[in-house]
Amino acid sequence: MPSTIVGVLLERHRDHIVLANGTQIFLDEGVTTNPLPIGATLTILCTPQGDKKLAHYIRVNPDGVLDALEALVAGSDYPAPPA
């Protein structure tokens, strides 16, 4: 069953990529890593292939997408105003 992974690109290889959290994702035929800048936030459509993840599609997200998501999860840095 396909799944979507969002992560930050740490390493780029001919046959796979590594995300900042250490996840290795192997590339389906025709998927290339050439235009992917290190440090970019990626959205990856992949399927499990045995114990590996196989990417069928990779998209570079605009800057700030992951930052905005992390901010939503972490909550506000500012204390609530007094009541």
Fold blueprint:
Blueprint: E1 3-12, E2 16-19, E3 24-27, E4 41-49, E5 52-60, H1 65-74
Parallel strand pairs: 3-5
Antiparallel strand pairs: 1-2, 1-4, 2-3, 4-5
Tell me what the structure shows.
The protein has one helix spanning 65-74; strands at 3-12, 16-19, 24-27, 41-49, 52-60. It has 83 residues and is mostly beta strands. It has a single domain, classed as OB fold (Dihydrolipoamide Acetyltransferase, E2P). The protein has a five-stranded mixed beta barrel. The longest helix is centred in the C-terminal third of the chain and has 10 residues, at 65-74.
Mean pLDDT over the residues: 84
Tally of separate helices: 1
Give the total of beta strands.
5
Under CATH at level 1, the class stands as Mainly Beta
Compute the gyration radius: what is it?
Answer: 16 Å
CATH architecture call: Beta Barrel
Name the shape in a single word.
Answer: globular
Number of domains: 1
Helix content: 10-25%
**String of helices and strands:** EEEEEH
Describe the structure using short key phrases.
83 residues, mainly beta, OB fold (Dihydrolipoamide Acetyltransferase, E2P), five-stranded mixed β-barrel, 43% strand, globular
Can you summarize this structure?
The chain is 12% helix and 43% strand.
